[in-house]
Amino acid sequence: MGVAICCASAGSPGLRVFGGVLGGVPALVLVPFNGTVPLWEGLVILAVMFLGTAVHRAENGQSTWRRTAGAAVLVVVCAVGSAYWSGSDDHFVRRGWIVAFLLAVLTFGVGLAARGRRVPPVLTGLGTISYSVYLVHPVLLAVIDGTIGRRRQDSVVLEVAFFAALLPVCLLTHRYVEAPGQAWGRRLAGVSSRSAPRSGDLVVGRSPRR
């Protein structure tokens, strides 16, 4: 993975492609053979991540919205179908997981439609720490399971307490881990772009994209 990151950050287009492939292959191998969730759920996570890439490309004119919409429909149908047919617990998978997944898709769709409008600071703050929430929440759940245990029935009070503990931790991880890592990555990308050859790869009259 370290070699893949170095190659993907290189100035040579060939090395960048090689780095992308080298980084993708271990991910595809680890999901079915070393995942902590069922195979269908691990593949759904990858599909949703790449769907986000497809949306980004459509917004930047690198793909069509029709193609992206088709990909979105395919991912949603496959995700819901996989959860329905492969889930072992009807209550959790067929009701809880599918409903949560569809609500997440709906939330993303609303955000995409309203991306040109002013968003309340609370929502932008939650969006900023969302990746930290994604990474930290299973760790916090594991700590709870290993100490006080988890109840079989839902409790609004416990859910509020969980978020009250989770969000401050995610604020700290974003501030002291994620944000410094992003800044380091931007500096590294800037050095890589300045050292890359510029002749022969620019169209006359157009500036390079950032």
Brief summary of the model shown:
It is built from 8 helices and no strands.
Task: Write the topology of this structure.
Elements: H1 2-8, H2 13-34, H3 39-59, H4 65-86, H5 90-113, H6 121-128, H7 130-147, H8 156-195
Helix pairs in contact: 1-2, 3-4, 4-5, 7-8
Account of the 3D structure:
This protein is mostly helical and about 210 residues long. It has helices at about 1-10, 15-35, 40-60, 65-85, 90-115, 120-130, 130-145, 155-195. The chain is globular. The two termini are about 25 Å apart.
- Helix content bin: over 70%
The pLDDT mean sits at: 84
Tell me what portion of residues adopts beta-strand conformation. Answer: under 5%
Q: Order of SSEs, N→C?
A: HHHHHHHH
Total helical elements: 8
Rounded radius of gyration (Å): 20 Å
Low-pLDDT parts are 199-210
Tally of DSSP β-strands: 0
Structural class: mainly alpha
Q: How many strands, what sense, and barrel or not for the largest sheet?
A: none
Oligomer status = single chain
Instruction: Choose one word for the global shape.
Output: globular
Our measurement of the CA-to-CA distance between the termini, rounded to an integer number of angstroms, reads: 25 Å
Could you list some keywords that capture this structure?
single chain, 210 residues, mainly alpha, 0% strand, globular, disordered C terminus
